[in-house]
Amino acid sequence: MALHNSPALKVVKDTDLEDWEVIGSGGFGQIYKAKHRQWCEFVAIKLLHYDDGTGQALLHELDMMQQGSNRHVLQVIGIFKGQSPSSGSSIQMGLVMDFMERGSLADLQQTLQGPPPWPLAFRLTHQIALGINFLHSLSPPVLHLDLKPSNVLLDSDLNAKLTDFGLARFSSSITRTSKKNSNDTGGTIRYMPPEAFDTSYNPSRAFDIYSFGILLWSIATGKKPYPNALSAIVPIRIPMGDRPSLDDIRCTDAGVAGLTRLIDLMQECWRSNPKQRPSSRRK
Questions:
Q1: Residue 206 lies in a domain
Q2: Does residue 254 form part of some domain?
Q3: Among the three residues 79, 98, 117, which one is the final residue of a domain in this structure?
Q4: Which of 103, 179, 259, 273 could form a disulfide with 107 if both were Cys (CB 3.0 to 4.6 A apart)?
Q5: Contacts within 8 Å (CB) and 24+ apart, 274-277
Q6: Using alpha carbons only, what angle is made at residue 232 by residues 227 and 233, rounded to the nearest 5 degrees?
């Protein structure tokens, strides 16, 4: 399959874009905001470290992601292939996505210096769950494998959209040329389930369900999980059963309607046994 033979995807070249601005970075590369000359609107460009062996997998993954659409999943609208402001003469490949004006949930937490108001927190929780359910309901299912506040983007009305889904299954080949300069582990340790630390682990839907439980805690508290723990200790303690403390949530907002059910859901999602966690699939 070649780029020009994929009718479902728009190919965006560097000559189509102007006003480039770096808005983020990660294990895959840099994320830019740029204005499309013909569309007259800003888009987000997530550039991947170019590797000749990943183009086919990238296109296959994007075709699978385009089986349907969901308002709480960020849609990929095209493939970028060309030079970026930082690549010199090197050719890079990447994803072209809608630009989200309000940034990420992590940005909102930093701005608020704490959790959002409860009505917004409950709405975001519900929308994230709908996004996960959509991904898990595809055939074959798409596993996110890196649910965290920075991967929940917000539109102008503060509606949640999941991003970076479906990429983890070929992340090692995309990032292998830069691993020596990266601490990327293919996931975010503080949101990873205990079974993921087993070297023979094969990811399943239960991975995302666990991460969703930890993400709920982060939304409710406005904090990073295990905020006082050394990073080296976290992957040791999670398989031993340690989970984020619920004391602050219980004591501060005990009278909030629906809070008890939210706490119960967190605990159900982060159970040690993946078979005992809730299912995201439609009934």
A1: yes
A2: yes
A3: 98
A4: 103
A5: 274/193, 274/195, 274/204, 274/206, 274/207, 274/209, 274/210, 275/206, 277/206, 277/209, 277/210, 277/213
A6: 65
My answer on whether 90 and 110 are in the same domain is no
Q: Which token pair is 21? A: 């601005």
| DSSP state, residue 2 | -
* Average pLDDT score over residue span 209-217: 97
Give the model's confidence band at 70: pLDDT under 50 very low, under 70 low, under 90 confident, else very high: confident
Residue 142 banded pLDDT, cuts 50, 70, 90: confident
Give 58's pLDDT tier (boundaries 50, 70, 90).
low
Residue 167 and residue 133 share a domain: yes
At residue 84, the pLDDT reads: 81
Q: List the domain range (segments joined by +) for residue 85.
A: 3-98
Mean pLDDT of 127-137: 93
Q: Name the pLDDT band for 63 (thresholds 50, 70, 90).
A: low
Domain count of the chain?
2
Residues 53 and 166 in one domain: no
Position 283 in a domain: no
Beta bridge partners of 185: none
Mean pLDDT score of the chain: 82
Residue list, annotated binding site for ATP:
46
Shared domain check, 163 and 38 = no
Tell me which H or E stretch contains 80.
strand 76-82
CB 155 within 8 A of CB 161: yes
Catalytic residues: 146
